[in-house]
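Bug report

Summary: structure tokens for Thyrotropin-releasing hormone receptor differ between web form and batch submission.
Environment: batch mode, default settings.
Steps: 1) Submit the sequence below via batch. 2) Compare with the web form result.

Sequence submitted:
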Amino acid sequence: MTDNTDTPTNISLSPSVSESLEYKTVSVFLVLLVCSMGIVGNVMVVLVVFTTRHMRTPTNCYLVSLAIADLTVLVAAGLPNVADSLTGTWVFGHAGCLGITYLQYLGINVSSCSITAFTVERYIAICHPIKAQTVCTVSRAKRIITGVWIFTCIYCMQWLFLVDIQVGPDGHVLCGYRVKRDLYLPIYLIDFAIFYVIPLLLAIVLYGLIARILYLRERTQTTFSDVGGKGGRSTRSAHSSRKQVTKMLAVVVILFALLWMPYRTLVLINSFVSTPYLDAWFLLFCRTCIYANSAINPVIYNAMSQKFRSAFRGCTAAKGQRARRPQPGTTRSHFQAHS
């Protein structure tokens, strides 16, 4: 372990955590609130897709990958932040420093790759519908997701060799850089380009093309429905469903861009300046935006997708029925006697 006091790399800890009761209270409350909502919501997304047959679509496969990645971020970055805020020191030891940092970057990068994957899938499905019949399949989506996770797991292994625990001048233990901070600039620039800039530029181009196609088809189908009767209405309904899903995914991408912008910008700027900006309240804001991004996607699905709303209600209702169902061996008279 080298003796330097550069800023930590992981997103759950700042090296100058405020000791004030106000900061600790606000930090713990925000993190617990956002992370608890996000964990419950993303678990529900995974359960709904796995247990509801008609929800097993290529797009939803990518949303499950995104939900698991978001769960990884919330658990590996959000929950350790509670201990950081309360103690102001790293309490998870050397193995925790390596493992938690690795899982944080794994979740972050898989989230970005999953968003890119479902953006490309939507583009093919809408702009090249004939090709989509053979390309946009559940089995292919599963293979792509497996490849994304394998690639990202290998790529993020570099952090197992780049971080270590350190003891600061004030005696606080930090999980931070193993060597001088400026040596990490190429890594942060590559991360910034591959997992933020390129996905967003690609999304802007592809959703622009999608919007153009949807607009042209809507005009054509409106004319066709005027003379096509029942067939025109059926075509218009399918078009409306595709449009709804595309809008929902576009909102996911927009929020990803906005909520990740403060942290990505801060890391990029701090990589170039000699004295990094590490205000505790601003770092809390950046981290809260990250956790909110991982927590808000299930809310978007529920608000913008009728199929997800119905599946969420169905899953909840099924759990309620199982909870009320009498245990095996309980007779009808015994149940009625206690009702």
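Above is the batch result. After comparison, the two runs are identical; trailing whitespace caused the diff. The longest strand covers residues 163-167. The chain has one domain: 21-311.
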